[in-house]
Amino acid sequence: MIYLASNSPRRRELLSQIGIEFELFLPDKIDEAVDETPLIDEHPVDYVTRVAREKAFNGWQRLLRTQKERLPVLAADTTVTINNIILGKPQDQDQARQFLTLLSGQQHTVLTAVVCCFEEKVMERLNTNIVIFKSLTKSDIEWYIDSGEYKDKAGGYALQGLAATFVKRIEGSPSGIVGLPLYETAELLKLIK
């Protein structure tokens, strides 16, 4: 049994898929949430690892202030990067359109960091994947924007949704691209036993 410091339905589904029992453990207040703004000149690997680490550590610190049972706190963060540019969650349709235009016909990287805090341990794993998009037409992009699926998705797309039709090839872990690399997560959780 672990605590999951993530509101992502995809991460919940993936943990359930591999039989991990969990309880959601999210911040009560907005000011307890982790600021996911990249630091100036922050490299994508450093960014995604820092954000996942802060989410897990903040969850652990909140847990210590409660009467809840002490269990491992797991958190993750996913980002899309192309040419070392971090493409987070688009703020609106215009930014989603910019992201999809940038990714069109290109190879990009999807990084997911997974971090687990338990007692004095902070354990982490990084999953790196390559995704190659077909060349997107303006109508492809508008169709996708109109679907609304881009919302709350790193890079403005979801591999497990309609954007699967944009993907020519992936190299790596489909679950890592969706938001929780199952191999790395299972290996990390073995370390806390």
Describe the structure.
This protein has 193 residues and is an alpha/beta fold. It has a single domain, classed as Maf protein (Alpha-Beta Complex), CATH 3.90.950. Helix content is 34%, strand content 25%. The chain is built from 6 helices and 7 strands; from the N terminus they run βαβαββαββαβαα. It has helices spanning 9-17, 44-64, 93-103, 138-147, 174-178, 182-190; strands at residues 2-4, 22-24, 73-82, 85-87, 107-118, 121-133, 167-171. Strands 1, 2, 3, 4, 5, 6 and 7 form a 7-stranded mixed sheet that branches. The longest helix is centred in the N-terminal third of the chain and has 21 residues, at 44-64. The radius of gyration is 17 Å and the shape is elongated. The model has no long low-confidence stretch (mean pLDDT 95).
Index terms:
single chain, 193 residues, alpha/beta, Maf protein, seven-stranded mixed beta sheet, 7 strands, elongated
Listing every helix as H and every strand as E from the N terminus to the C terminus, the arrangement reads: EHEHEEHEEHEHH
Question: Helical element count?
Answer: 6
What fraction strand?
Answer: 25-35%
Q: How many strand units?
A: 7
CATH class: Alpha Beta
Structural class: alpha/beta
